[in-house]
Design goal:
The protein has helices at about 35-40, 270-280, 295-305, 310-315, 325-335, 340-360; strands at about 5, 30-35, 55, 60-65, 70-75, 75-80, 90-95, 100-105, 105-110, 115-120, 125-130, 135-140, 150-155, 160-165, 170-175, 180-185, 185-190, 195-200, 210-215, 220-225, 230, 235-240, 245-250, 255-260, 265-270. It is of the alpha+beta class and about 350 residues long. It has a five-stranded mixed sheet, with no helix packed on it. Strands 2-25-24-23 form a four-stranded antiparallel sheet. Strands 3-4-5-6 form a four-stranded antiparallel sheet, with no helix packed on it. Strand 3 (about 55) and strand 4 (about 60-65) form a beta hairpin.
Length: about 350
C-alpha cells in the first residue's frame, strides 16, 4: 500500500475558477474547459447529470441525465436518441464501439429509431459499467445488499463473476491486464489470473474514492474524491489537487475531470509532464507501505466498515503490525466478527515480522 505524498500542483488550484473563455496555460499545462454552468445557461439547458462520462468513437464527450443522453462537442451539446423510460445510471462504449447503457436492471443500446432497447438483464439496478480492451465490466455500487460483485461481460452476453466484496464498488477500470477498483476509501488492484488483491492507496476513513482512471502509456493511475485528485505510479501516491474532484477519465493525452453537481467538465493536458518533472527534480522516496501500525482495534474497525476479508488480509500483509493474539484477545476478535482467515493472517504477520527483526 503506497503512502500519500503531499505534493500539490499549485497551478491546478486555479482550475475551479476558469470560465468558458479559458485563460493562458502556465508552463506545460493546458486547460480545456469543455462545459460549465455558464455554457449550459447560454443553451437554456437545465440538466441534472449523472456521475458518468465517456468519449464516442467520433471523439465527442457523452454525458447523461437519468433519462436523456447528450453529446458534447465544439458545436455545443445536443441530445442523443429519445428520452428513456426508466432510469439511466451508467454507460460506456464497448471495445467495438457499441454504446451500452445501464437502465434500471438491464443493459440497453440505442436502436435505429433512437430508442433504448434491452440487450442483457442485470442482477441488480443502478450498476456501473466500464470497458476493457476486449470485454466489459459491470459492478455493484449499491449499499443495501451483503455482497457486491464485479462481473466480466464478453461478446454474446457471456458473463462471469470475478470477485465479490461486502462494500460498494464505486469505480472499475482495466489497467495492464489487471483491474483497478475503488471501494470506500481504498484504491485496490485485482489480478484476474492469480485472483490476488492489492491495496494501492488508502485515504482517511472519512473520505470516499469516487472514480479511478489510468494512463497506460505513462503507467500512471489517477483517482479522486469529490474534492481531491491523486496520481499514482509504482513509487508513490501524489496529491495533485485539493480543490477539484469528481469523475475522471484519461483520454488521449489529457485528464478529464467532471463534477456533475457543478456542471463542470475540464480536460487537463500536460499533467504527466509536470508530475515527471517533479519526480526528476526531487526523486520520490521509496513508498512506505506502513502508514500506521495495525492493532487489534484496527482490524475490528476494518471489519465494522464491512471491508471484505481479502482486502483486510491485503492490508495486513503490507503493514507493520502489533497484534495481541492471546486466548482472550482471539475470543474477543471472533466475538466482534473477525473471521478465522483474518485471525490466521494476523498470526502469520506477527511471525513474519518477528523473523525479520531477528534477521537484522
Amino acid at each position: 500500500m503506497l503512502s500519500i505524498k503531499r505534493i500539490i500542483l499549485p497551478v491546478l488550484l486555479i482550475v475551479s475558477g476558469l470560465q468558458v473563455s479559458g485563460m493562458p496555460a502556465p508552463d506545460s499545462l493546458r486547460y480545456e474547459v469543455l462545459m460549465s454552468s455558464a455554457l449550459l445557461k447560454t443553451m437554456n439547458l437545465d440538466a441534472a447529470f449523472i456521475g458518468t462520462l465517456d468519449v464516442t468513437p467520433e471523439r465527442h464527450v457523452m454525458l447523461s441525465t437519468e433519462n436523456r443522453a447528450f453529446l458534447l462537442g465544439w458545436g455545443g451539446m445536443k441530445p442523443l436518441g429519445k428520452p428513456a423510460s426508466g432510469t439511466i445510471s451508467s454507460f460506456a462504449f464497448s471495445p467495438d464501439g457499441l454504446l451500452m447503457v445501464v437502465r434500471d436492471n438491464e443493459i440497453c443500446y440505442f436502436d435505429s429509431l433512437g430508442t433504448l432497447t434491452s440487450l442483457y438483464k442485470l442482477p441488480y439496478s443502478d450498476m456501473g459499467i466500464s470497458a476493457g480492451k476486449k470485454v466489459m465490466y459491470v459492478y455493484d455500487r449499491s449499499t443495501g445488499k451483503t455482497n457486491k460483485g464485479v462481473y466480466e461481460l464478453s461478446p454474446g452476453g457471456k458473463h462471469k463473476i470475478l470477485f465479490e466484496l461486502t462494500s460498494p464498488i464505486k469505480s472499475v477500470t482495466e489497467f495492464n491486464n489487471t483491474l483497478l477498483f475503488a471501494t470506500r476509501n481504498l484504491l485496490c488492484q485485482f489480478d484476474p489470473a492469480t485472483k490476488d488483491y492489492k491495496v494501492l492507496a488508502s485515504l482517511s476513513k472519512d473520505k470516499t474514492i469516487l472514480s479511478v482512471t489510468a494512463d497506460p502509456s505513462g503507467n500512471r493511475i489517477y483517482f479522486s474524491t469529490g474534492m481531491e485528485i491523486y496520481a499514482v505510479n509504482n513509487v508513490a501516491a501524489i496529491t495533485i489537487s485539493k480543490e477539484l474532484g469528481g469523475i475522471l477519465k484519461f483520454y488521449g493525452d489529457g485528464l478529464m475531470v467532471f463534477d456533475p453537481g457543478k456542471d463542470f467538465l475540464i480536460r487537463i493536458v500536460g499533467i504527466e509532464k509536470v508530475l515527471a518533472g517533479l519526480q526528476a527534480a526531487k526523486p520520490a522516496e521509496k513508498a512506505n507501505a506502513e502508514t500506521e501500525v495495525l492493532t487489534n482495534a484496527s482490524i475490528t474497525g476494518l471489519v465494522k466498515s464491512e471491508l471484505a476479508d481479502q482486502l483486510i488480509i491485503s492490508i495486513i500483509r503490507r503493514s507493520k503490525v502489533n497484534f495481541n493474539l492471546g486466548v482472550d484477545a482471539i475470543i474477543d476478535l471472533s466475538a466482534q466478527g473477525v473471521s478465522s482467515d483474518v485471525i490466521l493472517e494476523m498470526k502469520q504477520a506477527m511471525g513474519r515480522q518477528s523473523s525479520q527483526v531477528q534477521e537484522k
